[in-house]
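Ticket #4471: structure export looks truncated?
Reporter: QA, pipeline team
Priority: medium

Steps to reproduce: submit the single chain below to the structure queue and open the exported record.
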Amino acid sequence: MSRRHPIMSDKLKYEIAKELGVYDIVKTEGWGSVSSRDCGNIVAKAIEMAERSMADRK
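Actual output as written to the record:
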């Protein structure tokens, strides 16, 4: 089942990958070569950013 609308933009994913130091792996080998732990860290960072953004709106 494919998603029609990705939850995270590619721009955000690449930005977080750069911040966490896995961008070079993504750039040379693709997302499939990123470890599960690093993918989890990317998701955790995105959630943290979203929660911070929501808190700022209050």
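Status: closed, not a bug. The export was complete when the record was re-opened. Leaving a note from the reviewer for reference: The radius of gyration is 13 Å.
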